[in-house]
Write a structure and sequence with these properties.
The chain is α+β, with helices and mostly antiparallel strands. It has eight helices and 19 strands. It has a ten-stranded mixed sheet with strand order 4-3-2-1-14-11-10-17-5-6. A five-stranded mixed sheet has the order 8-19-18-15-16, with no helix packed on it. A hairpin with a 2-residue loop joins strand 1 and strand 2. The structure holds zinc ion. Zinc ion binds next to loops. The site of zinc ion has 7 residues, from loops.
Length: 291
């Protein structure tokens, strides 16, 4: 199943992408009477437990008036209000090498806050003094269950689905102190989407191509097989110290090809566009603009 959110005059609505078009979940719940969470926040609050009801809703929603044309919609962030945003640094062999860092022996976890969430096609404002803006194409994980002290073998069973993420970073602020936070959690510096593709459609998250284009030029081209710590290992590791909950998101690290790793660094500026495409998860496009 593919979930999206989209903007309406009544706020962000949840949709399910089907062959018949995008099902308006709230309208379908109202019209069919199926007992199903009607909004994105409600679905991600319960996570994978909502999936049978969502499937029943699609089954029951026969009225063509409940479906919209995806091309007419303005996307919202794939997960509008994650409970936690966990990120993994230096998690690809070749990316660690290009930054001059040795491969970490334990996952490098850091966080962003919800102010960083942005939608596909949404403009990303860059302040004049943010002069070292960089992109990071990443596989995003959306949690579907509660994970506390789960084993590596159990970990993928707690995943709701996957989405594209761009962990946009301002390298001066990132390196200013011992904490990366400032350079990572700038407003709208984590666009995600357009789809959350449920885990049943992504049987192996460790064999997905990860690509990124800046202004049409291919900059990143790798595969999640190059991850140092797998999705399952990251979840198991984090769950040793914190409870991961439905609706939390994890950005699993970027492969090589970032500007920071180049000899000649031409940082992103207003007018630049970056596209992230993780295999099977659609295409995430954002343009930088003047703040
Ligand atoms: Zn990153």
């Amino acid at each position: 199943m593919r979930l999206i959110t989209y903007q309406t005059d009544d706020g962000i609505q949840l949709g399910i992408v089907t062959e018949r078009g995008v099902l308006d979940v709230a309208a379908a719940v109202a019209s069919t009477g199926v007992d199903c969470p009607a909004g994105a926040d409600e679905v991600y609050a319960v996570g994978s437990a909502a999936l049978p009801a969502l499937a029943a809703l699609v089954e029951a929603a026969g009225d063509p008036a409940l479906y919209r044309n995806e091309g007419d919609l303005t996307y919202g962030p794939a997960v509008p209000n994650p409970g936690k945003i966990l990120c993994v640094g230096l998690n690809y062999q070749k990316h660690a090498a290009e930054t001059g860092a040795s491969p970490p022996e334990e996952p490098v976890l850091f966080s962003k806050f919800n102010n960083a969430i942005a939608a596909p096609n949404e403009d990303i404002p860059i302040q004049a003094d943010w002069t070292r803006v960089d992109y990071e194409s990443e596989l995003g994980v959306v949690m579907g269950g509660t994970a506390r002290n789960v084993s590596v073998d159990e970990a993928l069973g707690t995943v709701f689905g996957y989405c594209n993420m761009n962990d946009i970073s301002e390298r001066r602020l990132q390196m200013l102190s011992g904490q990366w936070l400032l350079g990572k959690s700038l407003d709208k510096f984590l666009p995600l989407g357009p789809y959350v593709v449920t885990a049943d459609e992504v049987p192996n998250p460790q064999n997905l191509s990860v690509k990124g284009w800046m202004n049409g030029e291919l900059r990143q081209s790798s595969n999640t097989a190059d991850m140092i710590f797998t999705v399952a290992e990251v979840i198991a590791y984090a769950s040793k110290v914190m409870t991961l909950s439905p609706g939390d998101v994890i950005s699993t690290g970027t492969p090589e090809g970032v500007i920071m790793g180049m000899a000649d660094k031409v940082w992103m500026k207003p007018g630049d566009e970056y596209i992230v495409e993780v295999e099977g998860l659609g295409r995430l496009v954002n343009r930088m603009v003047e703040a």
